[in-house]
Design goal:
Layout lengths: L2 H19 L6 H8 L3 H7 L3 H24 L5 H22 L3 H7 L1 H28 L8 H14 L1 H5 L9 H16 L4
Helix pairs in contact: 1-2, 1-4, 4-5, 4-7, 5-7, 7-8
């Protein structure tokens, strides 16, 4: 088995065990046994449970990054892309957190530890927002003075509502249509979308 396949298998097995048993209750030995790899192989790739936990978070962020990139590559208008990117991102993060069961509690408790891993993802996401904003300006859909700053503001705005969105505190009593209208009003008001 190739080096990257072995490492990927270890990360996937760890993700499943963390989701099922919790990060604290999972040992390196549990991961080695469940992956049918020896402890020596596991320690070749990961020096600690902390390191493999970070690799699990990073793999989930890589998947999210790919999903966001697919939205950007769609043949739809830039204003539709921005809205779809926002919802796709929030829904994908929510799905990852819920899919991973007990990892959810760890995610919220260790948000600053997760932040260290997110830096690379954040940079990719900001670039994707820049690409869509630039496309929107070029096509005359948006009027944006500073694409770089606007992309960062959109990114951090979406990131800022991530935890309340996952917990269901935002728009819980609104219909999807009403919630969508609020989001569009805020986003397009800031981007000065041209009608």
């Amino acid at each position: 088995m190739a080096v990257s396949k072995t490492k990927a298998k270890l990360v996937d097995v760890a993700r499943q065990l963390f989701a099922k048993m919790g990060v604290e209750n999972t040992t390196m030995n549990d991961i080695a046994l469940a992956s049918k790899k020896g402890r020596r192989t596991l320690y070749t790739y990961f020096k600690s449970k902390e390191e493999i936990y970070m690799a699990v978070v990073e793999s989930e962020l890589d998947i999210l990054s790919d999903i966001m990139k697919r939205v950007v590559e769609k043949d739809i208008s830039p204003d539709q892309k921005i809205i779809e990117m926002i919802y796709t991102r929030l829904d994908a993060v929510k799905e990852v957190v819920y899919r991973n069961g007990t990892l959810r509690a760890t995610f919220f408790r260790d948000i600053w530890r997760v932040e260290k891993v997110r830096k690379r993802f954040d940079a990719k996401e900001i670039q994707l927002f820049k690409d869509v904003l630039r496309e929107g300006v070029e096509k005359g859909v948006f009027q944006v003075d500073d694409i770089d700053m606007t992309a960062e503001l959109v990114h951090y705005s979406v990131k800022g509502i991530e935890v309340p969105y996952i917990r269901g505190h935002i728009g819980a009593k609104l219909t999807d249509e009403t919630r969508g209208q609020y989001v569009e009003n805020i986003v397009f008001g800031a981007l000065r979308r041209k009608e």
